[in-house]
Amino acid sequence: MILNVILEGQTYPVQVPQVVLDEGEEFFSVLDQDMDRGWQMSRTWVEKPDVEQRCQIVADKLLTALHTENQQMLALAAGYILTRMAGVTEVRLATDGDMMEHELVAASS
Q1: Are 77 and 11 within 8 A, CB to CB?
Q2: Can you give the residue ranges of every domain in the chain?
Q3: Helix (H) or strand (E) holding 23
Q4: Count of CB atoms within 10 A of residue 63's CB?
Q5: Which of 6, 14, 64, 102 could form a disulfide with 56 if both were Cys (CB 3.0 to 4.6 A apart)?
Q6: How far is CA 27 from CA 31, 73, 98, 100, in A?
Q7: Angle between helix 51-68 and 71-84 (nearest 10)
Q8: Distance between CA 27 and CA 77 in Å, rounded?
Q9: Nearest to residue 79, comparing CAs of 13, 12, 17?
Q10: What is the pLDDT of residues 1-27, one digit of tens each?
């Protein structure tokens, strides 16, 4: 499965192997447990991040993985987003430092 990541007008198609989607739940659950304690989202403390906010948090990890060329984290972060928000095909990453501006885009019908 592919998640298109848009950064500064450029599209990066992130290929997520089926094995990540099938067997990544342990890693995804650890992310969820960390976020269950609340999260600092840029300037705002979010006590209980909802699904969209959790995906924005993980999208921020995806941004870091792009910058560091960490292919494994790219696939895992994209896999998390794909499994948590059905229908999302694209993530538009904000570069202003505000993770709450990361936009999750679902396929149009």
Answers
A1: no
A2: 2-106
A3: helix 18-23
A4: 20
A5: 102
A6: 7, 11, 25, 23
A7: 160
A8: 10
A9: 17
A10: 999 999 999 999 999 999 999 999 999
**Residue range 41-100, pLDDT digits in tens:** 989 999 999 999 999 999 999 999 999 999 999 999 999 999 999 899 999 999 888 999
Position 42: which residue type?
S
Residues in the chain, how many?
Answer: 109
Neighbours of 97 (CB within 10 A): 9
- Residue 53 · residue 19 · CB < 8 Å: no
d(CA 20, CA 50): 23
Residue with tokens 């209980």: 48
What the block records as the tokens of 8 is 């500064």
